[in-house]
Each structure stands twice: as structure tokens, then as C-alpha cells.
Amino acid sequence: MQAGAAGGNSEAQHPMDYTNFNSLQILLLCGSAIALCVWQLRAVQRSRRQQVVVRAAPQLQRRGRTAARRR
Strand, coil or helix: what is 26? Predict the structure, then answer.
């Protein structure tokens, strides 16, 4: 019988030590913060694009009306 396989080995019970766990926590925290920033940036860009389209739409409609009147 192997000495470490029966449960006498603490590494089998806790495969990740504290420093690895902290590193993983920091990585996940920073990654989620960066993902949130990217998501917000894309939302703001989408909102600005929609505002530009809405502002340009009345001008396009006016141009279409004047072109129709000229015909």
C-alpha cells in the first residue's frame, strides 16, 4: 500500500496552496474588473453611435422631403 494514497498526505486533501489561491483570486478580480470596463466602454460607444444616427435622421428626412418637392 502506498503511504500518500490513503489520506495521510496533506497534498491530496489540499491540492492548491494558499499562494496559488491568492494569485488566482487576484487574477479573477482584476479580470472581472477589466471585463466590466470593456463592457461599459462598448455600451457607451453604442449609445453615442445611436445618438449620432438619431441626430442625423431629421437632416436626412429634410433632404428627402426637399428632393421630393423639387420633382
Answer: helix
Residue with cell 491568492: 22
Q: Residue 15: phi, psi to the nearest 5?
A: -70, -20
Residue with cell 466602454: 41
DSSP letter (8 states) at residue 33: H
Q: Predicted confidence band at 55 (pLDDT cuts at 50, 70, 90)?
A: confident
16: which 3 cell numbers?
492548491
* pLDDT tens digits for range 4-17: 555 555 555 667 78
d(CA 58, CA 49): 15
Distance separating alpha carbons of residues 21 and 23, to the nearest angstrom: 5
The answer to whether the CB of 7 falls within 8 A of the CB of 14 is: no
| Most distant pair of Cα atoms in the chain: their distance | 97
